[in-house]
Design a protein that fits this description.
Helix content: 55-70%
Order of helices and strands: HHEHEHEHEHEHHHHHHHHHHH
CATH class of the largest domain: Alpha Beta
Number of strands: 5
Strand content: 5-15%
Bound molecules: adenosine-5'-triphosphate, magnesium ion
Distance between the termini: 24 Å
CATH superfamily of the largest domain: P-loop containing nucleotide triphosphate hydrolases
Radius of gyration: 31 Å
Strand order of the largest sheet: 2-3-4-1-5
Largest sheet: 5 strands, parallel
Length: about 400
Amino acid sequence: MTLTEKYRPKNLGEIKGQDEAVVKIKYFIKNFGKGKRAIILYGPPGTGKTSIACAAAKENDLEIFELNASDFRNKEKLSTILKPAVEQKSLEKKNKLILVDEVDGISELDYGGLPELIRIIDLTPYPMIITANDIWDKKFNLLRKKCELLQLKEISYNIIKTIISEISAIEGLSIDSDFITELSIKAKGDLRAAINDLQTLSRLKDYFSIILDERNKETDIFNSLRKVFKEKPTNEIMGIFDSVNMSIDDIMLWFEENIPAEYKGEELARAYDLLSKADIFKGRIYKQQYWRFLVYENIFLSYGIASAKKNSKTGFTSYKKPSRILQIWMNNQKTIQKKSICEKYSQYVHVSQKRAMNEFPIIKQIIKSNPNIQKELKLDEEEIEYAQL
Ligand SMILES: Nc1ncnc2c1ncn2[C@@H]1O[C@H](COP(=O)(O)OP(=O)(O)OP(=O)(O)O)[C@@H](O)[C@H]1O
Ligand SMILES: [Mg+2]
């Protein structure tokens, strides 16, 4: 779930920085029937238009009936969709609220639907909320006359900052307050943008802490590789992996990868032989859950491999990251992208995530060839890139 979805206001009390609009929308719904039958909420993106409509519906126990831009494609379609909704009571016998979200998003081709929309405003027995960024185009002249107008303003930087600080505290994101200030100013009144930036920042933070963690691990493992490969075996060397924050299996992969970098000829053969003994114990541990064998796995890797050489070694050897770990890591990355694409897809078309995962090859094909769908699903760059593979 994205942070903007998670923190979408659940009721009008949670709408921030739009006090006047909230009062007016409450009044509009409460007094529906006395004045105009539709209200246009207009203003800059990410300031709460859609959220206010949804919260108002929830708070008044109204079922939302939503129309999108594509429903305006033609008059007939609009009347087949909207008229029945306006004429019938909902199944749960709840009252409704009709939401025409982003009316300024309709394309020129679909203007034909506008007069029909206006006719429907006259008929609607339910309050209607229309949202738009810009409503001053002359094509909306008639629509504007039929509706009350309610302007939403950019959300002030202070309010954005407070909200971002709150979210970051709840999410446990310990993000520097200077960062939050900067991000709130940069948002220029668009709260959604600010929350999205926070999310990106938090991902980056995870990313950097993983990298740092990997680096620390690498320093530790490099040191122990050096000791085992270069120095003479001692009792002390058997404890060498204690300070390496890595599973013994991963350590084994590092040895597997780097033995040829250090040992040649007979030494190489002996070292591989000892590695294979460690691997035998590893197998027994897995099969029999006999954890005492861990000691042996450990000894073969440390003391064992150290003793494979005749003399201690000097000089610098650059050790490589095991390619198998890299492979595993890359595979994991792939499933991360796949999962997040499926998450968005499943929410969008209302199927389970499991089914989306199963049908992924098809979904991927569809996404790959269709930028509009990428947009509809709100895929980020990494996800789009992954779909192209
Ligand atoms: N006034 C607000 N109070 C609290 N949260 C808000 C407010 N405005 C925006 N948000 C946050 O930003 C997200 C997006 O807001 P919303 O969809 O309501 O914006 P909008 O005005 O409809 O934007 P657009 O013009 O792009 O449709 C919400 O899910 C919520 O997390
Ligand atoms: Mg909106």
